[in-house]
Automatic annotation (TrEMBL):
Protein name: Conserved domain protein
TM region positions: 15-32, 161-182
Keywords for this protein: Membrane, Transmembrane, Transmembrane helix
Superkingdom, natural source: Bacteria
Length: 247
């Protein structure tokens, strides 16, 4: 029993070490990439005196919408205020209108819903355009955003699903290692118990030894059931006169 206990104890420690290493590596990569980014982005230009409009379309027989961001330039035209009660108002630019200088947008792009929703009712008069490493230009909703902020915003447009899948796979492997470590530690503890009797694994994970033990256990249970059935049959077949009643 001591040999088996020592073997399972070593296996438990190995799985524990591998689980901790895997989870630490996955966690370290995640925090590094989350801080430093998944894509290289560069500032293209800042557009001033502009209006940002949003729109979406849905093609026939399609379940998803296509979201658009459009940027127009405008000129602010001051309009005189009306005089009230014969008193002249000195503020001649209290009321103003926006006059679109271009009927066609100077910039337009498709985007995701997560990125699109930040530009609904966008009221800033300037916007900054960035470009990703694959050449896609996209606006950011913070006019003074730096490259780090722009890269985080770009994840709403193009999430790094490949990296996310690797994080999930690595996390699952780490958890499996920790689970096996706990399971083997329990087996090692059972082997150290002098009163321990081998209990076969129902899923046959104990290998050939477990399979034979399950067969022996099944035969023993079958024999016990047969013995109990014979005893019950013998009891029921006896006549009442066969019993010795107390005086």
């Amino acid at each position: 029993m001591n040999i088996h206990s020592e073997l399972h104890r070593k296996l438990s420690h190995s799985f524990l070490r591998y689980g901790i290493i895997i989870l630490a590596v996955v966690g370290g990569i995640f925090f590094y990439k989350d801080h430093n980014g998944y894509n290289d982005v560069a500032k293209v230009r800042t557009i001033k005196n502009c209006i940002v409009t949003t729109s979406s379309t849905k093609e026939p027989f399609m379940t998803k919408n296509t979201y658009y961001l459009s940027i127009y330039t405008h000129d602010e035209v001051p309009t005189d205020t009306e005089e009230a009660d014969g008193e002249k108002n000195d503020d001649k630019t209290m009321l103003s209108v926006w006059d679109l200088s271009n009927e066609e947008p100077i910039f337009q792009c498709t985007t995701s819903q997560a990125h699109f929703k930040h530009f609904v009712n966008y009221d800033a008069e300037e916007i900054t355009i960035f470009k990703s490493e694959d050449g896609k230009e996209f606006p950011v909703y913070a006019a003074n955003a730096d490259e780090a902020e722009a890269e985080r915003e770009f994840r709403h447009i193009k999430p790094p699903y490949g990296w996310y899948a690797l994080y999930i796979i690595g996390g699952v492997l780490g958890i499996i290692c920790l689970y096996n470590s706990i399971r083997l530690a329990k087996v090692a503890a059972n082997y150290r118990n002098e009163n321990y009797e081998f209990s076969p694994d129902p899923m046959c994970t104990a290998g050939e030894r477990g399979a034979f033990a399950m067969m022996d256990l099944a035969r023993q249970r079958s024999a016990d059931k047969t013995s109990n059935a014979d005893l019950l049959t013998s009891f029921l077949s006896k006549d009442a006169n066969d019993f010795k009643w107390p005086d």
